[in-house]
Amino acid sequence: MHKPEFDNVSVGGIATACVGRKQLAVLVGQICENYVEKQSPFVIFSNNGHAISIYNSDKEAREQMDQADLVHADGQSVVSFSRWFNKTNVVPERTATTDMIHDIPNFYQPTLKHFLLGGKETSVSKAGEILAQTYANFDVVGHQHGYFTDDDETAICDAINAAKPDVLWVGLGKPKEQIFCIRNKHRLKVPVIISCGGCYNYITGEYPRAPMWMQNAGLEWLFRMANDPRKLFVRYLLTNPHAIYCVIKHGLAKRTPA
Fold this sequence. Notes:
- By secondary structure, the chain is an alpha/beta fold.
- It has one domain.
- It has helices at about 20-35, 50-55, 60-65, 75-80, 95-105, 120-135, 155-165, 175-185, 200-205, 210-215, 220-225, 230-255; strands spanning about 10, 15, 40-45, 70-75, 110-120, 140-145, 165-170, 190-195.
- The strands form two sheets. Strands 4-3-8-7-5-6 form a six-stranded parallel beta sheet, with helices on both faces. Strands 1-2 form a two-stranded antiparallel ribbon.
- The protein starts with 7 loop residues before the first strand and ends with a helix.
- It comes from Rheinheimera muenzenbergensis.
- This is WecB/TagA/CpsF family glycosyltransferase.
- Pfam families: Glyco_tran_WecG.
- Keywords: Glycosyltransferase, Transferase.
């Protein structure tokens, strides 16, 4: 198995990869290149304020996150947090999942086969069409909406394996997508699994991206909340302060002598 090399830094208790956008995209491609049958999938999860809050308050979510092979900085806040208590190992830049799905075909030229799982049928199918039309090296070999039960998972995994993708994108929302990935990891014969939340809706334009200045300032969450306050206001109101508290708690604990 190809063992990618990267440093980690603890951000809110979560071991987060110190990788940039190009490095992460190429790393995914190299894992696919070197994949051999019967090898366990390389699982990639994301870290942001919501993830930090869940990780520190839900034992099951924490156990799922700890089983990932790599956790990347989906939120700009994670990039900043990584520098609060560290001088050397820090996250160089944000690797938002909504960018990563484009970064892979942009930075890794060989064609990879992708399977998109999650979201509404209309959203995931349209996202697949857009990606395949935009990138000649992004081969969409299948898709499946996210409205299924636990009893459906075996059949879904069989369909994914039959399609033989290199990368499986799982967009079911936290913590459901992490639970699905870890619970079915032994069933899936794919090189890489990436959790991707609501990524498909951004590809289709159903969810707008924040202006670049807000993304760079770590304020994309504010833009998203303003666009969907009914769904996101309470979430951000509760999780953002809790995430900051957890980052400080873990950072101070690391500095305290045993």
